[in-house]
C-alpha cells in the first residue's frame, strides 16, 4: 500500500527528482550566501561601525536565509514522501 502511494507521489517523476536535486543544491547556495553576507556585515560593524548601505546588506542576507530555509522544507517534504 505504501509503495502505491509513493508511486503516485509528485516526487516519483523525473521532474520531481530534478526539482528535489535543484532544491537541495540551491538550499546550500542560499544558506552559504546568507551566512557570508551576514559575516561581512558583522566584520564591517566591528571595524568601521554602522554604514547606511549595511541595511540593504542585512535585507539581502535575510532574503537568502529565508530562501534557504524554504528550500530546506522542500527537501524535508521529499524525504518524508520517499521514506519507506
Brief write-up:
The chain is mainly α and 84 residues long.
Q: Gap between N and C termini, in Å? A: 11 Å
Q: Any idea what the radius of gyration is?
A: 18 Å
Query: How much beta, percentage-wise?
Result: under 5%
Helix percentage range = over 70%
Number of strands: 0
Quickly count the helices: 3
In round numbers, the mean pLDDT is 85
Report the major sheet: none
Order of SSEs: HHH
Total domain modules: 1
- What class would the helix/strand composition place it in? mainly alpha
Gross morphology is rod-shaped
Low-confidence stretches: none
Structure description:
This protein has 84 residues and is mainly alpha-helical. The protein has one domain. The protein has 3 helices and no strands. The model has no long low-confidence stretch (mean pLDDT 85).
Key features of this structure:
rod-shaped, mainly alpha, about 80 residues
Topology overview:
Elements: H1 2-7, H2 14-48, H3 53-82
Helix pairs in contact: 2-3
